[in-house]
Amino acid sequence: xxxxxxxxxVLLIHAHQxxxxxxxxxxxxxxxxxxxxxxxxxxxxxxxxGLHMSGCLLEWIENAHPEYFDLLRRLEERNQLEMxxxxxxxxxxxxxxxxxxxxQIDRLTDYxxxxxxxxxxxxxxxxxxxxxxxxxxxxxxxxxxxxxxxxHFLGAGFEPAQLRGAYIAEELGNCVRIIPGLKIxxxxxxxxxxxxxxxxxxxxxxxxxxxxxxxxxxxxxxxVWPNSYQYCYTDGWLERFCVAIxxxxxxxxxxxxxxxxxxRPPLGRAELPAASYNEMMQWxxxxxxxxxxxxxxxxxxxxxxxxxxxxxxxxRSFMAKYPEANLLHAKMLHVSTKIRRLALGRRRGxxxxxxxxxxxxxxxxxxxxxxxxxxxxxxxxxxxxRTALWRSLVEAExxxxxxxxxxxxxxxxxxxxxxxxxxxxxxxxxxxYAALVDPxxxxxxxAIDFRPSNVALINSIARxxxxxxxxxxxxxxxxxxxxxxxxxxxxxxxxxxEHLLRYxxxxxxxxxxxxxxxxxxxADYEHLRLDEDAGIAGGNYIVEQVxxxxxxxxxxxxxxxxxxxxxxxxxxxxxxxxxxxxxxxxESAAKVQVGIETVLNFLAPDVPDRFIEAHxxxxxxxxxxxxxxxxLRIVDEFQDIAATLAAPGAHxxxxxxxxxxxxxxxxxxxxxxxxxxxxxxxxxxxxxxxxQGKLTxxxxxxx
Length: 703
What we know:
Elements lengths: L6 E9 L7 H20 L6 E5 L1 H10 L2 H11 L3 E6 L11 H19 L5 E3 L9 H7 L4 E5 H6 L11 E5 L2 E8 L1 H6 L5 H14 L4 E7 L9 H7 L2 H11 L4 E4 L1 H6 L15 H6 L3 H13 L4 H4 L9 H5 L1 H20 L7 H17 L16 H22 L6 E6 L8 E6 L2 E6 L5 E7 L4 E2 L15 H4 L36 E6 L4 H5 L7 H5 L3 E6 L2 E7 L4 E12 L2 E12 L3 E11 L9 E5 L2 E4 L4 E3 L3 E6 L4 E6 L5 E11 L6 E17 L4 E11 L3
Helix pairs in contact: 1-3, 16-17, 16-18, 17-18
């Protein structure tokens, strides 16, 4: 039993790897962080701590390194370790439906009980994202406590000296204990010498005898983040830290969070605002607002009394900042609704229950947080992370639709506000495809699912201004730095990234119509200098006709141009096709060029099993070229799919990679986000005449 009169350092360490991350990346994290961290603490049994590992990481470790569980169980049996729960696939709880919140928490609770023989009483909040309605969700799942940042408390008017214990958070009579994790400890551990942490804790103990100070932070800072392995293990920081704690055991002890909460009465009630840690709230701001925010923060950097009231956005702001995140989130909510409805039906056979369970697991996997936002980690800008979630959703929805229908061949269309932007979209589905038409964005298609291979075909992202782009030139001159917080060590993975910065005017959707002057050439397209007509490209098209497999829409601008787009979808064997017809007319004579754009992302731009085929020659996906052609083939042997682009009468096809320059935990990097292909026709119109063109995309399995 711990001496409750001693001041306590409460440690809650969090470990997670995203759904879709590469095995070699997780293996490196295991050998450089998860294993040495626990092995070292095993040698210091006085150092007690809580450990949260996401369910998807635990499953990987169980498969790859089952002996690690024996090590964790040994620490738990001697009361050194408390395993902490949360959402199994590390979702942002406030972003998913109530039923899914409960299922996520229950799955990790059941998993931990199965492998470690105790049901966790605490839950890690992903990215410490808190909103006031969470106590009801946590209590319903049997959770007694959680941890948020001191930032949450300071924003509610608490003084720093008050944050030496746990508080009660209540919603509609549902109460949970909330531990304030201190930012100063996150930045002291492990980036400053242990003596500085001891000095801070000694002062805190003098101000609040018998209390505790808590830190909740990522395990990856102890070996995964740049330079941290050498700093923590080779140079011995973690060993020195443990020795320093032990040397002060006459007044200081470490504690697992559950013991600290249960051994002390709550300090009071806390009404906390919607918040996360400081950096997250800044990342969530729109770029221009974030620039202003950082300037204000710098201006008042010496005013701690002002700093506590400088707050950024909330996590939900990412849905407004990044339409691609909002689209993924909308798809997840749509699929969740379909799966929940399955439980209301009358079918109860074992095959049905098994398929429904598979669909539910895929849905929960798709709620993994990492690809829904972007900060210092690649996140949303990481195509392999987005792909893993999209693939899960494509398969889950396909299962749900199959369980709902008895016929093997079918097609359906629905008109509703799919992405919650206040405007109606058109959603086509069949046994082979799902395709979303957005009339308000140029009557383009932002999402196409190839159900035979569970592939999201577009899955790209617009190139946009990010705050850190302004720092590229400065950072490219920096060398390797000593260990520092992940927020304070900008590096670049290759030189010259600042020359790749270019910014899209529209989202990276399929079937966008670009109308531009006849003098423009491929280089203008490659560098986004076409100066296309904004209305025809991205204006609000009026829906004229819709049925199960087709739609017709039109747009008119103030310059006398009229564009009519028609879509026709058709399943065919092991694939399907989407044909986009275009009719253009003008009130005045015009000599222009017209392009219909295709965007496809097959992820790996430089591997031999994925290529663009033209004139019987294969080119890597990163190919950039202007070729005289009206038909191309894009092949992905890994995902078992081929796309054929046919544009009869097109003069040329312009092909360019979509490459973003984004921040990640290891520095600024160039990332391939798919290819944009523009079929181009020269058009010479006279008043009263019209021009017609057509682009067809055919998708089929290779095997």
